[in-house]
Automatic annotation (TrEMBL):
Keywords: Cytoplasm. This is Regulatory protein RecX. Residues 130-170 form the RecX second three-helical domain. Belongs to the RecX family. It comes from the Bacteria. Coiled coil: none annotated. One of its GO terms (biological process) is regulation of DNA repair. The gene is recX. Modulates RecA activity.
Amino acid sequence: MTRRTDWPEYADSAGPDDPEGRGRGGAGPGGGPSGGFGEGSRRDGRPEGGGRRGRGGSDHQDSGFPASSRAENGGLPGDPAEQARAICLRLLTWTPRTRKQLADALRKREIPDDVAEEVLSRFEEVGLINDSAFADAWVESRHHGRGLARRALAQELRTKGVDSKLIDEAVAQLDYEQEEATARELVARKLRSTRGLDRDKRLRRLAGMLARKGYPEGMAVRVVRQALEEEGEETEFLEDEGF
């Protein structure tokens, strides 16, 4: 699997609260921004200025919906299925999403449940939604980019609605040896900043850092002890708990 360390942070990106995908742009499935709607075209797929010209020189939309209604629905057509497809494409243009994340976004936009279910199932059929691939990529990116261990990664995937079986399969790509090697790297980077503290505080601070990233307590204490011993610290009587 190709290593990814640049997974977008949802705090900085468009999420279910922002289905319009405001902010930085991205290439859509059709090669253009916002799901294939390029420059000079409107979000309903018709060219700019394509409305009928009525009396008084004003442009009238031929969708038959009042301007206020169109604004509430993001300028999308009135058909709920079309709205659902457009919302999903915009969200997926920004970053991969799980089925649950998209379902939550559609529910917030008051798309009927039966329509949302049909659209989401179709997206799964054509591969635009793939929770298994999402979980694999998430584990790869977050472990190498943030140093998260299996426990923390599994918790993050649960919050995104990934099925427990898929979570187990995804985190299984991290074996015990790889997890411990990453823990050692994290401690090595943090070790210098703890110099000058007494040994118990150093142990608690470093082991606590690993615990917050999901590493088992036994592994965290052992890795920190070994790092301190390599610096000449006596660790035989150091406290193991309280971090």
